Amino acid sequence: MLTITESAQEYLAELLGKQEDALGVRVFINDPGTARAETCIAYCREGDVLDEDVKQPFDKITAWLDNRSVPFLEDALVDYSTDRMGGQLTIKAPNAKMPRVSDDSPIEDRINYVLYNEVNPSLAAHGGEVSLVEVTDDAFAVLRFGGGCQGCSAVDMTLKDGVEKTLLDQLPQLKGVRDMTDHSDRSNAFY
């Protein structure tokens, strides 16, 4: 799962020692499975630990991993290296933006996988992109278009004949897609 090098453990243990009530660190990913994914480390205090968190003890510190972030933290590495300015903590999470997905993965992860690996490369030719906003209780994927797709006159055709068809072919449990993009802004529209 997550690796925290000895130098990073020493650095984090020193920081934690300066905090009154820190139990360890909490590791999580904001917007996991998207191009906006960002891996984060924060102090973890008593009220921060959730029942579903995964506790990962190390020699010098303890980390609590946000359960939703766990598949995205596979093969992640936290390291600390010294330099002339002091040092730098680095986090590398190669699966944060696009984890390995399987039939058991959450539907949101599987949708994002299809969007970022199959749909967006085609839309990028026109300067466009599409991202998942949410999956509704009635099994519709709510999407937002951006770039050259926002305000494009061909977006309805792209949505139904391209994006929806691709998603439904691969994820038959979906009922369809809905677009929540404000297409009145045509400043970057491709057509």
Beta-strand fraction estimate: 25-35%
Poorly predicted ranges: none
Q: Could you say which structural class the secondary elements and strand pairing correspond to?
A: alpha/beta
Termini separation comes to 45 Å
Work out the helix count.
3
Anisotropy-based shape: elongated
The amount of helix comes to 10-25%
Tell me the major beta sheet: 4 strands, mixed
Measured on Cα atoms, how large is the radius of gyration?
A: 20 Å
Care to count the β-strands? 10
Question: What is the N-to-C order of secondary-structure elements (H for helix, E for strand)?
Answer: EHEEEEEEHEEHE
User: Can you give the mean pLDDT?
Assistant: 89
Strand order of the largest sheet: 3-2-5-4
Layout of secondary structure:
Layout: E1 3-4, H1 6-17, E2 22-30, E3 38-45, E4 54-57, E5 62-65, E6 77-83, E7 86-92, H2 107-124, E8 128-135, E9 140-147, H3 155-170, E10 176-179
Parallel strand pairs: 1-6, 2-5, 9-10
Antiparallel strand pairs: 2-3, 4-5, 6-7, 8-9
Helix pairs in contact: 2-3
What does this structure look like?
- The protein is α/β, with parallel strands linked by helices.
- The protein is 24% helix and 32% strand.
- Strands 3-2-5-4 form a four-stranded mixed β-sheet, with helices on one face. The chain has a three-stranded mixed β-sheet with strand order 1-6-7. Strands 8-9-10 form a three-stranded mixed β-sheet.
- Strand 2 (22-30) and strand 3 form a beta hairpin.
